[in-house]
Amino acid sequence: MATQYSREADVALALKMADAADVISMARYQSQDLVITTKPDNTPVTDADKATEKALREILATERPEDGLVGEEFGTSGTDAKRYWVIDPIDGTKNFMRGVPSWSTLIALIERNDDGTEKIVVGVVSSPALFRRWHAALGLGAYVSLNGAAPKKIHVSGIKSISDASITYSDFNNWGDYLPKVQSLLAASNRTRGFGDFWSHMLVAEGAAEVALEIGVALWDMAAISIIVTEAGGRFSSIDGVDGPGHGSGLSTNTILHQHVLDALRVK
């Protein structure tokens, strides 16, 4: 019979993993001898990505040997288990390579229900170069910790009009037929910024922005992010309105503006 763990124990383990990841990634950040290679999908990977994921896999092998794992760099195992972890060792590898501080380690835990449906129950986004870490657990809220201080609960904003909203996005690549819709939406807003990756979504969770848009993403890019946004009172879906991660795109909002954004992005 599988061991039962409390939600608090799962959060503690995820934070322990984030601590380990921060040590490894920061030791290689801005290194002159950083080793960079190209993956089959033509995206870059560094020795820091690989070392970070390897360390997290080793922790899980010791602490949660019954759990499955989906990692960006070293593949998938045991996802038929009742629980599996989803890891992106360095989200924002291109930023990491260039010395831009907006990169993070993403850690999520997914549980499978008896009917086969799944739910994300824990998420951690750790960004040591920004001195920030966010975390959330299902039913327990979302939090941010600044420079190692005690976690502070966060919540999305209450802005109700797109003309008053701040929108963040990754870039204009890969949007295809959606691009004119995206640009019209940005033009209708109060403020736009291209922060990209995890940070856009965390700004929504903190109430510093109302909308974050991203396309061309995988489960490991969005799993941890999605629970932090939703536990902060927001909504997370694909740009086509399918709730949850793993659908190729990510839309985080303060919930109030979600349907407006979906309608604005709809391609006839």
Tell me the β content. 25-35%
Query: Rough shape?
Result: globular
Percent helix range:
25-40%
- In total, the number of strands is 15
Rg is 18 Å
Category by helix and strand content? alpha+beta
Strand order of the largest sheet: 4-3-5-6-7-8-9-10
Q: What attributes does this structure have?
A:
268 residues, 8-stranded mixed beta sheet, 7 helices
Please explain how this structure is put together:
It is a single chain. The chain is α+β, with helices and mostly antiparallel strands. It contains seven helices and 15 strands. Strands 4-3-5-6-7-8-9-10 form an eight-stranded mixed sheet, sandwiched between helices. Strand 11, helix 4 and strand 12 (191-193) form a beta-alpha-beta unit. The longest helix is centred in the first third of the chain and has 22 residues, at 7-28. The mean pLDDT is 92.
Structure, briefly:
This protein is globular. It starts with 6 loop residues before the first helix and ends with a helix. The chain contains 7 helices and 15 strands.
What topology emerges from the helices and strands here?
Blueprint: H1 7-28, E1 36-38, E2 44-46, H2 47-63, E3 68-71, E4 75-77, E5 83-91, H3 93-98, E6 104-112, E7 118-127, E8 132-137, E9 141-146, E10 152-153, E11 166-169, H4 179-188, E12 191-193, H5 197-206, E13 211-215, H6 219-231, E14 235-237, E15 249-253, H7 258-265
Parallel strand pairs: 3-5, 11-12, 11-13
Antiparallel strand pairs: 1-2, 3-4, 5-6, 6-7, 7-8, 8-9, 9-10, 13-15, 14-15
Helix pairs in contact: 1-2, 5-6
